[in-house]
């Protein structure tokens, strides 16, 4: 799905619902990395309402996250090349690029994605067909065929590059025995450090006697719902879309309520 920029958590959830779930149905579980959209309160609340559980990868670099991350890298490299040479029309023919990707046989399975998901390979692009006498249709098919061929060349090149790069780093695996003590490197363990220039993850909840709590930046509004008083809370360290209504008894600092009602006497 071509987007003008990184989507918010709510936009991501809506895109998944409108473009994936309506074809394949609701999932039981969603596995993702720890991007800001996927650790968001909005993301968790959205899928809790749908009865979908959320599973997060540990903060490991791409080589340790399996085939999914490697495939994302391949597609990312292709899209950078493809979009650079088609800056005015890249989104128009993106469907053929995806079609070609899903028709590419994977060395690990001997099948292509279409065969894995559908059980069969749909017809490939009709190469060398007769040109149409309608100029608009003829142009569309000529561009589509060009995108199809270019996609396959780029993906094959990416596969060869990945294979040669991986072979350079490979060595004979050590023969470990059950119970043997080994050193564990922290290189692949994601630490929560405020590195300069890197967007920090949302703050962790505070541990209190009754469980966990989050810092409140400001109380914005109040309402009565079902006979009880609720407050609209802006959370410290979270974006505005994470604001949520909280029951009166869940606000642990009475001074927050006093300040709010002092400035909102009505």
UniProtKB/TrEMBL annotation:
GO molecular function, one term: nucleic acid binding
GO terms (BP aspect): DNA integration
Pfam name, any one: Chromo
PANTHER family, per the entry: INTEGRASE CATALYTIC DOMAIN-CONTAINING PROTEIN, PROTEIN CBG26694
Main location: nucleus
PROSITE patterns the record matches: CHROMO_2, INTEGRASE
Localization per Swiss-Prot or TrEMBL: Nucleus
Stretches assigned to the Integrase catalytic domain: 1-121
Name of the molecule in the record: Uncharacterized protein
Segments forming domain Chromo: 214-266
GO CC, one annotated term: nucleus
């Amino acid at each position: 799905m071509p987007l003008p920029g990184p989507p918010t958590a709510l936009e991501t959830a809506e895109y998944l619902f409108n473009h994936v779930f309506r074809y394949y149905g609701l999932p039981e579980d969603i596995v993702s990395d720890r991007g800001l959209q996927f650790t968001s309160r909005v993301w968790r609340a959205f899928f809790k309402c749908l009865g979908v559980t959320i599973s997060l990868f540990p903060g490991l670099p791409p080589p340790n996250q399996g085939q999914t991350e490697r495939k994302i890298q391949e597609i990312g490299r292709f899209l950078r090349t493809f979009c650079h040479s088609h800056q005015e029309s890249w989104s128009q023919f993106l469907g053929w690029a995806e079609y070609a990707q899903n028709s590419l046989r994977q060395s690990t399975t001997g099948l292509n994605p279409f065969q894995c998901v559908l059980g069969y390979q749909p017809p490939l692009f009709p190469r060398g067909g007769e040109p149409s006498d309608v100029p608009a249709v003829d142009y569309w098919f000529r561009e589509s065929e060009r995108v199809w061929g270019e996609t396959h060349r780029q993906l094959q090149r990416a596969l060869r590059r990945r294979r040669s790069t991986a072979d350079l780093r490979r060595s004979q695996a050590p023969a470990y025995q059950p119970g043997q003590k080994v050193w564990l490197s922290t290189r692949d363990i994601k630490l929560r450090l405020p590195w300069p220039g890197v967007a920090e993850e949302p703050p962790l909840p505070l541990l209190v006697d009754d469980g966990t709590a989050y810092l409140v930046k400001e109380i914005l509004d109040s309402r009565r719902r079902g006979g009880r008083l609720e407050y609209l809370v802006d959370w410290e360290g979270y974006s505005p879309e994470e604001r949520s209504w909280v029951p009166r008894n869940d606000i642990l600092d009475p001074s927050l309520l006093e300040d709010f009602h002092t400035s909102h006497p009505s």
